[in-house]
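Q: How do we represent a protein-ligand complex in a form that can be generated token by token?
A: Start from the inputs.
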Amino acid sequence: MSASTLKIALVGNPNCGKTALFNQLTGGRQKVANYAGVTVERKEGRFTAPSGRVLQLLDLPGTYSFEANSPDEQITRDVCAGNYPGEAPPDLIVCVADATNLRLHLRFVLEVKRLGRPVVLALNMMDTARQRGIVIDVPQLQERLGLPVVETIAVKRGGARALIERVDGEVPAAAPAQTDDAASRADLHAQVRELLAATVTMPRATAVIDDALDRWTLHSVFGLMILAVVMFLVFQAVYSIGKPMTDLIGDGFGWMGEHAAALMPAGPLQSLVTDGLFGGIGTVLGFLPEILVLFLFIIVLEESGYLPRAAFLLDRLMLSVGLTGRSFIPLLSSFACAIPGIMGTRSIQDPRDRLATILIAPLMTCSARLPVYALLIGAFIPTRRVLGVFNLQGVVLFALYLAGILGAMAVGWVMKHIRRDKSEHALLMELPSYRLPKVRDVAIGLYERGAIFMKRLTGVILGLTILMWFISTFPSPPAGATGPAIEYSFAGYIGRALQYVFAPIGFNWQISLALIPAFAARETAVAALATVYLVGGEASGLGQALAGQISLASALSLLVWFAYAPQCMSTLAVIRRETDSWRNVAISFGYMFVLAYAASFVVYQVASALA
Ligand SMILES: Nc1nc2c(ncn2[C@@H]2O[C@H](COP(=O)(O)OP(=O)(O)OP(=O)(O)O)[C@@H](O)[C@H]2O)c(=O)[nH]1
Ligand SMILES: [Mg+2]
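Then emit the structure tokens for the protein with magnesium ion bound:
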């Protein structure tokens, strides 16, 4: 390393744009590694400043506060303070703050300043700040803070010019280091308030509207009621808007399957195309509209600024079941898929809170389960109105999501009481301003969800469906066989063996069999059932076949099974990777199996008795 290499560390609250700034400066060239022994990322890059000096840049994990104790935050603090073994202290700390949210970010800036090292403050997201009419008196802020302050727009070409010029110049003098005690921490709050009053002018209109809305949405009683109503309406919409489109697609595929069959000679190939491809894959594809409608609402709620408020609102509730408000976002992501949710738990400081969140994340209903729910609800729940306005199918879907959430809360509560350390960590998060979602952002978000679904469909689900078709078709029945052909196939044998385990909860052999590919990808249960029933030649449509073949009690039991059952292999693999422990995988699989089996058993027995 040449003598003139300057080592710069980028720090800041999560989501302030550190990584965007890092990429802008280094052109994305980087070396990513983990800090020894922990899964905290260390990302390093370099670039040459106009003066010819080489600058080495370190992107550190987002940190709310140095008081917190997540592995990420400890490492960030130690690296900045120059105490991290094997890491030379940075010559300069660039503290990045979101200019649209200085109320939250300035506090951390003050904490960084107290380390007593040279600091430059980058006010990032200046484009959004200007758009929103936020005016920041930079010279005044610079003077009051006693730090150089520059404005940046990390996502715009040349948006970091002021920062480059500043870091290429002389290294600023460090403020004296200060010790951290309770009194000085309380002091930080007062300082932030003072700084804001002197240097930041917020647009009146937004602030007034935000406050007015927040009085309702964050109210401890009305807020929860609003949240419940909003979520309830979303599930209603999934059925009222998505279902007709799903039916249309289903009819379309049925029609295509028939025509394709007419063009082909009878035989295995014809059966693969009609039963496996059009029947199996077509049935799963039909659920795309429902998934898109659900995500349309989730994305709009998120973009509008409502979802972070829901997190804030639920924080107290989460604490009471041994979680933290920080668990909310990972858990919310788990409604799409548990995998990003579990990966998102990295931002939870307390290892026990983090583990608890990881273990219950799969209880949140992931989008892969939606086709299964939609199929069974469509086949078994009448399209009755409840209380005159609500669609009964939508109510059942809402109840299933709720069952997952309540199950998760119950498990969280049990874990809280088992563990010895009962400390709690309250949430510290930013509440963005309300805004009208941009059509483009919503469209991109929807497109991404749709693309993920299609990729799964044409990848793992297609492969598994062909496999299911194969084991359902071969071996062919012996000459003179009387029963349906499928009973002599591999699938028939495997299904009947599994049935010993699942009969007490009301699953026939076809359902038991479908659980296997579902363990690789949930949606495949639908394709597998379609294939098995269509190969068995029992009916034209799958919903119709199911309604004729299994009882309402079995269908309810299966719905409950899918709400609680151990989720797909990929989820378990991610648990293994994120916790580095097979034991946690076993705990996760085991408790969910027991939970699902018990719940399905109760539902099946009660429903059978009442029927
Ligand atoms: N409009 C605007 N968006 C920005 C700016 N800088 C970053 N963003 C966006 O803000 C989001 C977060 O940026 P990141 O760079 O991932 O933030 P980070 O600080 O690295 O976040 P963590 O690593 O999670 O702590 C991304 O969607 C960026 O595209 C900016 O100057 N203006
Ligand atoms: Mg980052």
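The first strand starts at residue 6 and ends at 12. The pocket of magnesium ion (ligand 2) is lined by residues 18-19 (CB under 6 Å).
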